[in-house]
Amino acid sequence: MFRDTNPLGRFTSEEGKEDFQTAYNEAMALLPKPIEMKDIETEFGTVRTYYFTKEENKHKEPILLMPGRSSSTPMWQPNLEGLLKERPVYTIDLLGEPGMSEQTKVIETQKDQAKWVNDVLNGLNEDKVHITGVSFGGWSAMNMTRYYPEHIASISLLDPVFVFEPVSLKMMLASIPASVPFVPKFIREQMLSYISGGAKADDSEPIAKLIESGMRNYKLKLPMPDLLSDENLKNVDVPVMAFMAEKSTMHNSEKAVEKGKKFVKNITIESWPKASHAINGEFPNEINERILDFVEQNSDDN
Asked: 255-287 burial string, b = 16+ CB within 10 Å, else e?
């Protein structure tokens, strides 16, 4: 009687949607003002995109930022300002995740996951983009290389999950109660704090507030990410830079570095000392600089 048979990701109530929208607007207010907001139609739904740039950088190949699970565009607040100094930047809200994108068709396979992202890239009318993905967004970027690598100039990964190492059993078990709506809010906040290396994660922190609201009010209906195989990694034919967080609760970062070096032919990968899974917010200046240098090295607009 209580089985959820709706196959689409969605907000579970109008009240929940409004709660998330309020948190989203508060967090978006912390970002630079986008030059353009565009909803792109894909085979699986409408995807919200934002375009940020300075006039003098418009001719350069852009960076596309892909957020983590239950996150959305505002999570890039620590990085946007710095990246904008040198490059145009697109952000997207992942389809089937809490955000301003709206899923209209069932996403069943890993190829489906790549297909809608490729539809977005076609809709942006950019020949090449440099993708930066954090956590699940890193998996999404690497998943693209399996099916639709044509538009990808380079990939920068920030503690990606399911790319080089599986997620730890402890983390998978911890995430189960946090995703159940009637579980007390403080449990979700504790989990977010744990993931973020002990950082404060409550309503006083706008991005944490937004993610918690998304976890509480949005029902995901997406296929489980699969761990990329050795063969998948060997077949990656774009330049990759990866920073694995030394103190990540998600996986064994040391093993991830070893595997990346062993199987990906064009990769710069390292363990980032003292970093947690929230690496992009802990070391924004250093990470921004490294991403911009890497993008510059692999751009055709030099």
From this structure: ebbebbeebbeebbbebbeebbbbbbbbbbeeb
